[in-house]
Specification:
Length: about 210
């Protein structure tokens, strides 16, 4: 009887360990591990990041193109020698990207993220273009020009956009406004939430 009891206990322990291991594996795929990459003056800079997560960005002023890619990578590249500092921190299904020290004259940068990423982007001033990314988007700038694809309007649950001073164009809904304190809001049947704001400048959603 004692031997049978010990056998059952050992089997139960093995099953519990196996289940916990499988659960942990499902939460954090082996090829997407938490990591921090911090580099100054080198391009490109990249870190592995699973599709479907959320990327927060604090970007320096400049000309920045933010695009979606098919694989699981956050990648930053630029083509000028400079002391640009790039830090990418990945923790589970969230990534934090901070870029500082950009040159002030005609600086251009490309940032690539998995195309199914959610975005939270803050940028002081410049020219920002976002394309090929399907997910929630929250983007804010103080000054400059923002052009952002929102995709099919039917995929959106809520679209809000505003400018304190400047022009506001929301092409999928045939909206065009200009002047002071212009805004737009539209609900829909989809699952994505889109918010964009510029203090002074031009904002275009397409």
């Amino acid at each position: 009887m004692k031997t049978a009891f010990l056998s059952v206990l050992a089997l139960s322990t093995t099953l519990l360990v196996s289940r916990n291991a499988n659960t942990q594996s499902a939460k954090t795929p082996a090829k997407f591990q938490d990591a921090t990459v911090e580099v100054v003056g080198k391009s490109p800079v990249q870190a592995k990041f699973a599709p479907g997560g959320r990327v927060r960005m604090d970007l320096c002023s400049g000309g920045i193109q933010l695009v979606g890619r098919d694989d699981g990578v956050v990648r930053v590249s630029y083509d000028r020698d400079s002391d640009v500092k790039v830090r990418i921190r990945v923790l589970g299904n969230e990534a934090d990207l901070r870029v500082t020290g950009c040159p002030s004259n005609n600086f251009r940068m490309t940032i690539e993220v998995p195309k199914s990423s959610g975005l939270n982007v803050r940028m002081f001033a410049g020219d920002l273009e976002i394309s090929g990314i399907a997910g929630d988007k929250d983007v804010s700038m103080h000054f400059g020009e923002l052009r952002m694809e929102i995709g099919n309007p039917a995929d959106c649950a809520l679209v809000t956009a505003s400018v304190s001073s400047g022009s506001l164009v929301v092409s999928p809904f045939n909206v065009a406004k200009g002047g002071l304190f212009r805004s737009f809001e539209q609900s829909g049947p989809g699952k994505y939430r889109v918010h964009a704001h510029i203090g002074a400048g031009d904002l275009q959603l397409r």
